Amino acid sequence: MLDTAKPGELDNAKSMSIIVTKGTLDWAYPPFILATTAAAMDINVTMFFTFYGLPLLNRKLDLKISTLGNPAMQMPIMGMHMAMPNLVSAIPGVDRLTTTMMKNLIKKKGVASIEELREAAVDLEIRMIGCQMTMDLFEFNKEDMIDGIEIGGAATYMETAVKSDINLYI
Amino acid sequence: MAQHQLNAEGLNCPLPILKAKKALKEVPEGEILHISATDPGSVADFAAFCNQTGNVLVSSSTDGGIYKFEIRRA
Asked: What is the pLDDT of residues A29-61, one digit of tens each?
């Protein structure tokens, strides 16, 4: 068995779990970047999607960012940095504009899209678990989500977390 | 012996690593994957990647803003 197993499947392989709680365009990056990179480094990865992180498992993604509650956000514009005051998010269309700006920037700088990273996560056989309670709470269906995911609860996560070398909450 | 090449130029973290992982699957054990990248972070990242995975970073060099790596598949 051992000689046919990939390095990531060996008993002595390291493992990581991530609780994904946020689903905005900016917050979707850290969990997917760390998860795919870890898996590429032969680390067994489990991602548990809960609350606002759960919609990241939906087949169709339309992620957005908001300047609201994000006073540290600075967008590079013509060689300078433009701060995005909380107040401007109240103006209709501003969040849509900043989302478009961010997506353009992502493309221009050769940064992967969340869709690309999620595809890589599937290819790298990352275990992705959707939170059952969140599905009930916000009325999400497994049919609307990508194939190959599991549905589970806190106990499912804990069983994995207790055996993992790294546990992150994002 | 065929040359194994990966062009990761213009790609940002973590794409060079993810593409390299995929490309290494096609490289027979003991053979070398030649990678070119423009992400300055890839210098430290490919070293870390090799340390963790056991693949050997045979060389790491810079040539006019292009970072070149040779990784021997373990």
From this structure: 999 999 999 999 999 999 999 999 999 999 999
What does DSSP assign to residue A91?
Answer: S
For residue range A101-113, list pLDDT tens digits in order. Answer: 999 999 999 999 9
What are the CA-CA distances from residue A119 to residues A21, A56, A88, A116, A167 (Å)? 19, 12, 34, 5, 22
Give the count of Cβ contacts less than 8 A between chain A and B: 43
Of B7, B72, B24, residue with least CA distance to A40: B24
Q: How far is B33 from chain A (nearest CA, A)?
A: 16
Distance CA A55, CA A21 (A): 10
By C-alpha distance, the chain A residue nearest B52 is A41
* pTM metric for this prediction: 0.89
Domain count, chain B: 1
* Predicted local confidence at residue A110, as pLDDT: 94
User: To which CATH superfamily is domain A7-63+112-169 assigned?
Assistant: DsrEFH-like (3.40.1260.10)
CB contact under 8 A, B49 and A41: yes
State whether A112 and B15 contact (CB < 8 Å).
yes
- Structure ipTM: 0.89
